[in-house]
Amino acid sequence: MTNINDITVFFGWCSVINMGFLVFAVLFLTLFNDFIINVHSKILGISSSELPSLYFKYLANYKIGILIFNLVPYIALKLMV
């Protein structure tokens, strides 16, 4: 049976992994911007001018998801212990 400490550790590692993925995505989009825009515009049929705003929305939504589903439960469990 799991206890609060196990669940806290789980949410902590989920937060670390998801923040690492977010940093990786930001670095990848920053360093290889032209290449990624060309590939996505050809594959998805979206104009190159629309893609940067879509990338920004994706990263913003992902960050909000990390906050809501990983960090808030982790902090709440840390405060309970």
Automatic annotation (TrEMBL):
Q: Which Pfam families match?
A: DUF6868 (PF21742)
Write down the superkingdom of origin: Bacteria
Keywords assigned by UniProt, alphabetized:
Membrane, Transmembrane, Transmembrane helix
Regions that span the bilayer: 7-32, 58-77
Provide the DUF6868 domain boundaries. Answer: 3-80
> Which protein are we looking at?
DUF6868 domain-containing protein
Species per Swiss-Prot/TrEMBL record: Aliivibrio logei (Vibrio logei)
